[in-house]
Amino acid sequence: MNGTPPFKGDHVGSFLRPERLKQAREDISEGKISADDLRKVEDEEITKLVEKQKESGLKAVTDGEFRRAYWHFDFLEGLEGIEGYETEGIQFKGVKTKAHSIRVIGKVDFDNHPMLTHYRFLHNLAGENHVAKLTIPSPNMLFFRGDIDQTVYPEEAALVKDVINAYKKAIQAFYDAGCRYLQLDDTSWSLFFAEQGEELIRSRGLEPAQLRQTFADTINEAISERPEDMKITMHICRGNFRSTYVGSGGYEAASKTIFDGLNLDGLFLEYDDERSGGFEPLQYVQRKDLNIVLGLITSKFGALEDKEEIKARIKEASSYVPLEQLCLSPQCGFASTEEGNILTEEEQWAKIRHVVNIAEEVWG
Predict the structure, then answer these.
(1) What is the largest CA-CA distance in the chain?
(2) Which has the closest alpha carbon to 331: 276, 251, 282?
(3) What's the rounded Cα separation, in Å, for the pair 186 and 84?
(4) pLDDT exceeds cutoff 70 at 168
(5) Coiled-coil intervals in this record (predicted)?
(6) 147 in helix, strand or coil?
(7) In Å, how far are 22, 117, 253, 262 from 278, measured between CA atoms?
(8) How confident is the model at residue 273 (pLDDT cuts 50, 70, 90)?
(9) pTM across the whole model
(10) Residue 229's beta-bridge partner residues?
(11) For the chain, what is the radius of gyration of the CA atoms?
């Protein structure tokens, strides 16, 4: 398999939290243990997780997002000028998340972020033969998930500028800590995949085409100063909570922007069921150095997909993008929030091994 990220057999990043870790997080919320006690449990469980990833054949290893409650809020709350607060949860299909959100209360910046320490711990565990992969939310997530204090940012352009600069600082800081594989996670693109999403955009006084370009410009500018030997990918998600989802629809409406307008090294795409549409939008992939990671293996349920059917779908996608530019992964993480999807840890690892085995058979 290839030697640089994204890898032919890869993964999105989050893993099911072990019961010991869940108990420790509950204990600290009840004041039964200290922050140091929790950190010790996290360190030990992350160490075991990294070894499991290596044993499963993965080249990229993450900390499973074990120190987070959410895939996005924890990172964003660590930025200067942003705080978390309790509010309404997000409605998924038949289930609702915990009541939590973020708001901008001051000038946004990046300084002494706690995830720098988290990354250094992971980097040391990865060793020389594996790559430590860091996952953080896309800068776009702040604009649709955060409440903005208009007295701090009366003009959105000033907020966009500060967020971009904060991400530039973050990318450099993580690079200095050793990071060479960074993934931006982004659910905002799913707004363009179905009519109800575009209606929501218009209800906020915006035009979908203009917002698509704003999203692309924000990402491109945020990563514009990344070092040459740092690979940055993006995972485009339609929602992932307790094996449910929020959005549906294919990539058509945003395909030109996503596949020919983003200066990323790779795109992790959900393709595990009919909600994601067909491969036709991949025709807009024009760059020979853009890797497309096909999320053909679902992380939502434990049953393993038929290997030959997955190979057939990879072959179908290769009629739009050369096989050497394609990779394989689960369509999303196994635990975008600490609650996790509805499958067992054994089923989770079977999924990962399935990805690696198929990738080895397809790409060698």
Answers:
(1) 57
(2) 276
(3) 19
(4) yes
(5) none
(6) strand
(7) 38, 41, 13, 20
(8) confident
(9) 0.93
(10) none
(11) 19
For 357, what's the count of Cα atoms within 13 Å in the CB-facing half-sphere?
A: 15
Residue identified by tokens 């080249």 is: 59
Residue type for position 88: E
- In terms of Cα–Cα distance, which of 242, 315, 238 is closest to 270? 238
Token pair, residue 346, equals: 């054994």
Choose among 178, 244, 258: nearest CA to 212.
258
Pairing type for strands 231-236 and 146-148 reads: unpaired
DSSP string, 153-168: -SSHHHHHHHHHHHHH
Q: Report the distance separating Cα 264 and Cα 33, nearest Å.
A: 42
Q: What amino acid is encoded at 359 in this protein? A: A
Q: Considering the domain 19-363 in this protein, what is its CATH number?
A: 3.20.20.210
> What is the number of residues in the chain?
364
**C-alpha to C-alpha distance for 327 and 223, rounded to whole angstroms:** 22
Instruction: List, in sequence order, every residue forming a beta bridge with 235; answer none if it has no partner.
Output: 185, 268
pLDDT tens digit sequence for 69-82: 998 999 999 999 99
Residue 251 is classified by DSSP as S
**Which residue is it, tokens 């990354």?**
119
Strand ordering across the sheet containing 101-109: 80-85, 101-109, 146-148
Structural tokens at position 75: 């990172």
Q: Could you tell me the residue ranges of all domains in the chain?
A: 19-363
